[in-house]
């Protein structure tokens, strides 16, 4: 039977995410800058698709001659610019942003030359442009590998024990059953100062285990959960309200596609089975295999593990 202890230490106040310096040293853009950039990106994408799919209509609207291939290329370049603008808000690394935006625009450009070959150009043009896209793709993958495939914005660690997790894509989190049996789970962790944060869902096994025992171990790992570093003992605390929103922003900022789109969509579609999304704070501690066990505050919903 787990022994519940009353931890009277107040929770750390969440730090605002809009002006917090990232690992690159630059503060996050404010809402006006980010919002305007995304609106402009959307405008460029819409105009680019219009020019690409309906070149005659686009040419008539902008009062240019209906030169189909050149209008197609206009669409390709506008889409490339739109993608670059959008990624500039979501991704933290300028070189990866530029490579991805150029890859999209140039690939559409290559397709245009293949489709419009009967209108002019050389037969070699699509191949040459295609080779350029392939080379850029290799460069982008190599750059993403250097970034550990973490393209979003990351914070900084003021606790040296959390430093390995700042740019780590996947972390193995070990929680403990009532009998002390460790259960590993691969997940994403965002670091901010001396705390880490992760999200899961209400009915997950680790959520139930953490109700009874808040001890965990964090270990850098591969996507499949194979450890690649030393474990760090920590305590997990479930968050609510402002603290939960702060944790959500940090996780989404680090993984904009995975946790900004894919995971929330999966949680929403499976909510009847999984329950709502929940967030936890991680605080490095002494070894979790010794000392008293303590429980996180219980939620009114959910059952004991």
Structure report:
This protein has 305 residues and is α+β, with helices and mostly antiparallel strands. The chain has 2 domains: 31-146, no CATH class; 160-284, Electron Transport, Fmn-binding Protein, Chain A (Pnp Oxidase, Chain A, Roll), CATH 2.30.110. The protein is built from 9 helices and 7 strands, in the order αααααββββαββαααβ. It has helices at residues 31-53, 55-62, 68-90, 94-115, 125-146, 205-212, 241-254, 258-269, 271-274; strands at 170-176, 182-187, 190-192, 195-201, 215-221, 232-238, 277-284. Strands 2-1-5-6-7-4-3 form a 7-stranded antiparallel β-sheet. α2 (55-62) packs across α3 and α3 packs antiparallel against α4. The chain is elongated and about 75 Å long. It starts with 30 loop residues before the first helix and ends in a 21-residue tail after the last strand. 35% of the residues are buried.
What key phrases describe this protein's structure?
305 residues, alpha+beta, Pnp Oxidase, Chain A, 2 domains, seven-stranded antiparallel β-sheet, elongated, disordered N terminus, disordered C terminus
Helices and strands in order, then pairings?
Elements (H helix, E strand, L loop, with lengths): L30 H23 L1 H8 L5 H23 L3 H22 L9 H22 L23 E7 L5 E6 L2 E3 L2 E7 L3 H8 L2 E7 L10 E7 L2 H14 L3 H12 L1 H4 L2 E8 L21
- Beta-strand fraction estimate: 5-15%
Q: What class do helices, strands and sheet pairing give?
A: alpha+beta
Cross-sheet strand order for the largest sheet: 2-1-5-6-7-4-3
N/C terminus separation: 12 Å
For the biggest sheet, the summary is: 7 strands, antiparallel
Shape call:
elongated
* Number of separate strands: 7
- pLDDT below 50 for ≥5 consecutive residues: which ranges? 1-22, 288-292, 294-305
Return Rg in Å: 24 Å
CATH architecture call of the largest domain: Roll
Order of helices and strands: HHHHHEEEEHEEHHHE
Summarize model confidence as the mean pLDDT. Answer: 85
Helix-residue proportion:
40-55%
**CATH superfamily heading of the largest domain:** Electron Transport, Fmn-binding Protein, Chain A
Number of helical segments with 4 or more residues: 9
């Amino acid at each position: 039977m787990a022994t519940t202890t009353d931890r009277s230490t107040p929770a750390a106040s969440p730090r605002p995410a809009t002006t917090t310096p990232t690992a690159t040293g630059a503060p996050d853009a404010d809402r006006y800058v980010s919002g305007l950039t995304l609106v402009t990106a959307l405008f460029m994408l819409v105009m680019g698709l219009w020019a690409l799919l309906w070149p005659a209509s686009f040419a008539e609207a902008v009062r240019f001659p209906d030169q189909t291939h050149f209008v197609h290329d206009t669409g390709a370049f506008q889409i490339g610019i739109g993608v670059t603008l959008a990624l500039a808000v979501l991704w933290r690394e300028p070189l990866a942003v530029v490579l991805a935006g150029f890859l999209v625009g140039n690939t559409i450009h290559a397709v245009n030359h293949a489709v419009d070959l009967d209108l002019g150009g050389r037969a070699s043009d699509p191949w040459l442009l295609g080779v350029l896209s392939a080379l850029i793709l290799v460069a982008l993958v190599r750059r993403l590998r250097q970034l550990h495939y973490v393209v979003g914005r990351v914070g900084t660690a003021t606790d040296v024990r959390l430093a390995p997790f700042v740019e780590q894509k996947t972390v193995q989190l070990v929680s403990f059953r009532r009998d002390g049996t460790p259960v590993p789970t691969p997940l994403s962790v965002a670091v901010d100062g001396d705390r880490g944060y992760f999200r899961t869902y209400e009915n997950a096994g680790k959520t139930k285990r953490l109700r009874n025992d808040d001890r965990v171990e964090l270990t850098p790992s591969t996507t499949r959960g194979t450890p690649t570093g030393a474990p760090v003992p920590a305590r997990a605390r479930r968050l609510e309200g402002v603290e939960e929103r702060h944790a959500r922003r940090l996780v989404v900022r680090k993984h904009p596609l995975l946790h900004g789109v894919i995971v929330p969509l999966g949680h929403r579609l499976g909510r009847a089975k999984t329950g709502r999304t929940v967030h936890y704070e991680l605080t490095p501690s002494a070894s979790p295999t010794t000392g008293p066990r303590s429980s996180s505050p219980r939620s009114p919903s959910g059952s004991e593990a």
